[in-house]
Design brief:
With 126 residues, the protein is of the alpha+beta class. The chain contains three helices and four strands. A four-stranded antiparallel sheet has the order 1-2-3-4. Helix 1 runs antiparallel to helix 2.
Amino acid sequence: MLHTVVRWIRKVYPGVVFGGYLIAFILAFTMVFMLPIGALGMVFLAVMALIPVVALLAVVKAVERPLAIRKLRRGVCPACEMASITARDPVVGGGGAGYACGACGALFSARGDDIEAEAEISAAAN
């Protein structure tokens, strides 16, 4: 349950951050005509907010990894919650060692990170 919530937060986090920055842009744009110094302050604040935004994403990923590894070692897929995880051989497909879900086809690294299918295909081609 906790992993599902943390995984969902990691998935929607970039969209929420983009939405926040879009709202800040619209506010700063309207402030240019009413209070120019306010717009300059908003731009400065938005640039300084990048540091905690990136740090918070790193914290979310650091919390999610051990939870995902625990599920993978039990044989449960972190993405679809089905008990269909198989360990992948590092030699097969040219990729690194990891896990694959037989139900949803999701791929995971040995560290518990999601592996995109396109990255796996390009690694196998090289």
